[in-house]
Structure formats: C-alpha cells, structure tokens
C-alpha cells in the first residue's frame, strides 16, 4: 500500500536520536557538559612562559530539532495535548484541529441495560474492541455500584481483545485475556469466532457473547458476530461524532489544500472518515487528495486499520508505525523526516533548509513564509541553474497567476531573511534567478 513502516528500535536509543537536535554543518552532534578526566577540586597545571596557549573552543554549531520547520496538524480529540507535546519536543510547530468528538454514554440507558443483563445472565465470550471502551465500561459500572458484580460475571468467560490496548485494559480490570487479534482488526475477531463455532461442539445460538462496541455508527462488529448465529449483547460505551464546532477542521482542510501544513496525524479510522466528510462538504476534495498524493503533505496513521481507511478514501498513509502506539507513531514520523533537510552553500555561507526553517552558520535560524520557502526550494533543486520568473510563478503560485512582480517581491523578502547569505540569491537580468555558492 506504499506505507513507510518503521521498524522498532530500542526505546532509549531511538528516543536519543529522535529527540536530539540536528547540527548545521558536518553532521556531528555537539553536546555540552563536563567531560574532563580531572578529579573535581584539582587545580589545572600552570602554563609555562612562552608555551603555546590552547585556542578558544570553537563556537557551538547551530542545533535544530529533527522536525523543526515542519507544521503538524493533530486531528485527535483524546490525548491531543500529549501528542502535541511529543511533536513539539522534536521541534515541530503543532496545531490542534480535532475532526472527531468522543461522546461518553456512561449515563445512557443502553449501557446500564447491557451491564445488568450480563450480570444476571453471564456471557460465555467477551469481545473487547478498545482500551478506552473497556476502561469506560468498568468505570461506569463502578458508578452504578455494579463494578464487582460485572467483574465476577465476566471472569469465567473467554475474553477476546482487539489489539494491545483492549488487552491491556482488560488485564488492568482483572480479566484474563484468552486471545488477541494479531493486527487489531474487527474481521480477525469475527474469523476467530467463526473458527470456534466450527470446532466447538455447541451451537452458536447457545453461546452468549458480550460485545463492547467502539464509537463507530451502528454496531458492525456485533452484527457480524450475530450473523454467525451467536446470541449477542451489544455494550455501547461511547459514540464518535463530528466536533460541535467544525470551524477549526474546516480551516485544516484549507491548510492541507494550500500545503500550509506538512503532516496530518490520525489516531482513529473514524477520524479519517470524519476528515473526509468535512473535506467533501468544503468542495476541496481534489485539492486535498493531490496535496497528500504529491507528498507535500504527509498523512501519519497510528496503525494499519487507520491507514486502510485513509487509503480507501484516497489518502496515501505515508507513515505507519510497526506498533499501534502514540509514541511509536511520533517516533516513526520523526524517523521518516530525518532526510527532509537540504544543505548547501549560499554566498559562502553554510545553509541548512528544513521545512520552513533556514539555519545559517553563525546566525539564529529564521522561519520563512510558505511562498519564501517554496521559492527557495525551487531554486535549490537546481543549484547554480537559472530558473525563469515565469517558471517560479507557475510552480509557486499556480497556473492561474500571471503577475511576475509577486516573484520579485518574494525574492526581495527572501534575501532580507537570509542575511549575508541572501547575496547568493542572484538576479540574472532578463532570465530569472539562481543560487550562487560563492
């Protein structure tokens, strides 16, 4: 499917790489701290008269995070602050634009009725869809003073978990997990129950199955299990909906279409579905799909189920971690972007361009506007070659723009932003612009 999956590395080693800063220059990381072998309290030996004195240590190289210069849009409603912090530690600019709302059903009659029914008539099998749903179910039962009774009713059952999060929540609640889906897909749960029905001596109609629903509309997993002939008790714990205020999500659609963000993260398949619904309503579906397909915007999905939903909607899920975990997703994204920086000489200055950020030796990094970045990228793709104004106008502003003065103004601003290196953005009279290393 074209996913960039990232192999798991030892956590300490990978965190060291992906949370570190990236130097400008020779690629070696500069570290600070006391590395002297001299015991503390020992005075340094005096330097004899006439002896050469040690030179001053070189100035520290400019350090930038692996995601500095890139903008990440977080579409989740749950744990969005944690996700934003993980990306920010790696230097990214983060915007939180939820496209999904998780509506708890703890006080709803459906959850109470299902819980009381299972306590009165315990199930033979328990199918747990999500970690959130499992935790919320037991929390709601505690609120009804039914927590212990529910646990006792479910303990003898065969417990099936859809993925590691549901399995972990079950173990925390006090349930032993009998079987776990390999890749957290509903169909694996259904296939396992179909296999059990074929091998078990009992008729499926004699087997009572409690199904903790995820927040998707309807109850597809419960319906598929019921179609096998099982007696199913559906347990509704929460529901996924569109945000009450969709304005931030609508702005995100515009930003994706305009390539004003670099990364969009999805942590639930239904978040992808909601995003596509909002895109469709905006009338920008073609522009959004092209932004993802071109690689200008990267879709990052927490796992294969989410990625499959993105692919089905026409969005290439470019980055998918090996493990369906938030931290693994952020690490995979950072790893995928380690080769996005471009380094070159400009007017004798060492320049590192990373997203919208430009770091120049001896100076503080500067942030470029989208147009400035796009112009510099277009010139840097053809070092020393002349790029015509018309070509820059077409590439950066699109086919519909004809005013070459826009290019002139943007180049002038770019030169100012680059400081001494700006002299390397040369005008070639009547032809266009080029980057000069000298």
Description:
The structure is a single chain. The chain has about 450 residues and is α/β, with parallel strands linked by helices. About 40% of the residues lie in helices and about 20% in strands. The protein is built from 16 helices and 22 strands. Strands 1-15-14-13-4-5 form a 6-stranded parallel beta sheet, with helices on both faces. A hairpin with a 2-residue loop joins strand 17 and strand 18. Helix 14 crosses helix 16. The longest helix has 14 residues. The radius of gyration is 28 Å and the shape is elongated.
What's the short version?
This protein is an alpha/beta fold. The protein is built from 16 helices and 22 strands.
Distance between the termini: 44 Å
Task: Give the helix/strand class.
Answer: alpha/beta
Determine the mean pLDDT: 86
Q: Gyration radius, to the nearest Å?
A: 28 Å
| CA-based shape | elongated
Q: Figure out the total of helices.
A: 16
Low-confidence stretches: 7-61
Largest sheet: 6 strands, parallel
- Strand proportion, as a percent range, falls in 15-25%
**Strand order in the largest sheet:** 1-15-14-13-4-5
The number of distinct β-strands equals 22
The helix content is 25-40%
């Amino acid at each position: 499917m074209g996913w960039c999956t990232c192999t798991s590395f030892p956590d300490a080693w990978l965190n060291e790489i992906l949370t570190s800063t990236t130097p400008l220059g020779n690629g070696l990381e500069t570290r600070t701290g006391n590395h002297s072998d001299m015991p503390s309290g020992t005075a340094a030996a005096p330097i004899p008269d006439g002896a050469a004195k040690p030179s001053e240590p070189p100035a520290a190289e400019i350090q930038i995070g692996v995601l500095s210069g890139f903008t990440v849009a977080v579409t989740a409603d749950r744990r969005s602050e944690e996700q934003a912090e993980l990306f920010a530690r790696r230097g990214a600019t983060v915007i939180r634009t939820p496209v999904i709302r998780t509506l708890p059903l703890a006080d709803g009659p459906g959850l109470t009725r299902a819980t009381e029914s299972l306590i009165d008539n315990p199930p033979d099998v328990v199918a747990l869809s999500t970690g959130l749903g499992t935790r919320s179910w037991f929390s709601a039962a505690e609120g009804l003073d039914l927590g212990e009774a529910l646990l006792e009713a479910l303990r003898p059952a065969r417990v099936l978990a859809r993925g590691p999060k549901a399995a972990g929540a079950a173990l925390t609640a006090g349930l032993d997990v009998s079987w776990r889906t390999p890749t957290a897909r509903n169909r694996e749960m259904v296939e396992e129950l179909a296999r059990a029905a074929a091998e078990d001596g009992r008729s499926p109609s004699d087997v009572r199955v409690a199904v903790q629903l995820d927040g998707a509309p309807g109850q597809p997993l419960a319906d598929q299990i019921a179609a096998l002939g099982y007696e199913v008790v559906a347990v509704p714990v929460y529901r996924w909906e569109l945000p009450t205020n969709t304005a931030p999500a609508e702005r995100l659609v515009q930003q994706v279409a305009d390539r004003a963000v670099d990364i969009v993260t999805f942590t639930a398949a239904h978040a992808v579905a909601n995003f596509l619904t909002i895109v469709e309503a905006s009338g920008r579906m073609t522009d959004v799909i092209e932004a993802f397909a071109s690689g200008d915007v990267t879709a990052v999905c927490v796992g294969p189920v989410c990625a499959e939903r993105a692919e089905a909607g026409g969005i290439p899920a470019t980055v998918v971690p090996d493990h369906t975990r938030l931290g693994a997703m952020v690490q995979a994204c950072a790893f995928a972007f380690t080769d996005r920086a471009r380094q070159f000489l400009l007017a004798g200055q060492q320049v590192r361009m990373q997203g919208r950020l430009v770091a120049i030796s001896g100076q503080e990094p500067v942030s470029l506007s989208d147009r400035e970045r796009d112009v510099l990228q277009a010139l840097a793709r053809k070092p020393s070659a002349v790029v015509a104004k018309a070509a820059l106008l077409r590439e950066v502003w699109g086919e519909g723009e004809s005013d070459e003065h826009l290019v002139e103004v943007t180049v002038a601003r770019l030169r100012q932003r680059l400081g001494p290196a700006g002299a390397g953005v040369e005008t070639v009279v009547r032809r266009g612009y080029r980057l000069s290393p000298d």
